[in-house]
Amino acid sequence: MGEKPLKILACGDVEGSINAVFNRVRTVQKKSGQFDLLLCVGNFFGSSPEAQAEWQEYKSGAKKAPIHTYILGAASQETTRFFPSADGCELADNITYLGRRGVFSGASGLQIAYVSGREGRQDPTPAHCFSPKDLSQLVEPLISNNQFRGVDILLTSQWPRGVWQYANSPEVNTKFCGTTSISHLAFKLKPRYHFAAVEGVHYERRPYRNHVVLQENTQHVSRFIALATVNNPEKRKYLYAFNIIPMKSMEASELVKQPQDVTENPYRKMVGENTLSDPTVQEPASQFFFDLGKKQRGGGRGQGGHRQSQRPPFDLDRPKQPRRPPQPSGPCWFCLASPQVEKHLVISIGTHCYLALAKGSLTPRHVLVLPIGHYQSVVELSSEVVKELDRYKMAVRTFYKSKGQRCVLFERNYHSQHLQIQVVPVPEDKCTTEDIKEAFMLQAQEQNMELMEIPEHTDLKQIAPPGTPYFYVELDSGEKLFYRIQKNFPLQFGREVLASEAVLNIPERADWRECKQTPEEEESLSKQLRNDFQPYDFALED
């Protein structure tokens, strides 16, 4: 298909030898050109004073990783202190912690499943371990899609038990190596590449089949590669370079080609039915009920109607099949299926997104565009969610324009659990778009923040990988402003700029908590806005 392959590096346990691995990466890139990603499995951090001092140079910004680096969480109790939470986040410039478990989908469509730490054998599960519940919550949303063929890459710290069956033997004591739960995981997810570490050796298994010959249709093969520790004295291989075209971009005939040395699947005999099901995992709410008036129709919306939620956080090429959106790990005020959501504020419900009146709104038409599923930022959204988000943005812009108002959008991906696009109208006779832009720039400068202007058609994912904290503004001219948040970012910054004398001149409304209304006042305002927005609401027609 002419698709350009991605160039990827995978690395074993770094154990604090960060300079060594990045120096090696620079050498490889000087010889072979720039790579797209570095994926690190096993323990990235070390506990020695030297290792901690080395990390501090990257954390402080004195040094920068030469490549986008994605790491797994702690595989030992001693290194848990380097990870601020179980959720993924940026730890330093160009170094991102993926999270406890999940799926990372790049802009290219490459799909990387990951599980951090070791298998937990006690309850509650220690911070450096994973539980059966973690595995089931990773697997079930993927395999419930009947179009699921597998993932491109699987990252685990521990080896899968029995991976050496039908193949060459590794230089480890196989009696104590690996865990069966990772074998089950690999069997279910069918990764094209599976990387692991923590055993201190390099082992590249012969590729194995994911189908039963003569009984099932031919499927792609899987390759398991274990990597050694960085700077190991035996000079065992710890860095692995490879090219890959995302599965979703490949022709089926090309994807399922079988190499000559392919073997049987090493896990099939040990895997029974339901090996990853966990009876303690309760089904999250997957329906929501609203009364938005009889005019809100279609797709189950309307008087006493419901709409099934539809989209998990993975782009799995199944646009017509209804699926649950990603669920929060705890209470969330903005997930549409959540009992905490204030339903009377909802203005419109689409397939993947919804529109709501902002609580403590700056002006009567200040709204939020939010995903129905639990996503933290725009850069985590699948393409179809982004598409509907853009439709809502366009609809609100047109609505504001009909009222003689400019449209200003902003997002703060910092100390926020659920993505909220704030959409604020500014009367055209109040100020120009250039005035609004200048107000953002000046207030950023006053707070020693460098707000950058980025090209109109730039994809945020190109400059802010998942986990990156940022603040983003979109003006009605199409101009975009971006700030990569370092620390101590003022949470009300967007409101403060728009409430300032230079823009709306309502400084007393800069803090939403000072603008609270009674539920009755909110309901009245929502009803009026719902009626006014109706001619622009594409969700009524879809």
UniProtKB/TrEMBL annotation:
Domain (Cwf19-like protein C-terminal) spans 446-538
Pinpoint the Cwf19-like C-terminal domain residues: 324-431
Q: Which GO terms describe its molecular function?
A: RNA lariat debranching enzyme activator activity
Query: So which domain of life are we looking at?
Result: Eukaryota
| Matches recorded under InterPro entries | Cwf19-like, Cwf19-like_C_dom-1, Cwf19-like_C_dom-2, HIT-like_sf
Cellular compartments per GO CC: post-mRNA release spliceosomal complex
Q: Where is this region: Disordered?
A: 292-329
A single BP term in Gene Ontology = mRNA splicing, via spliceosome
Q: Which family does it belong to?
A: Belongs to the CWF19 family.
What's the protein name?
CWF19-like protein 1
Gene transcribed to yield this protein: CWF19L1
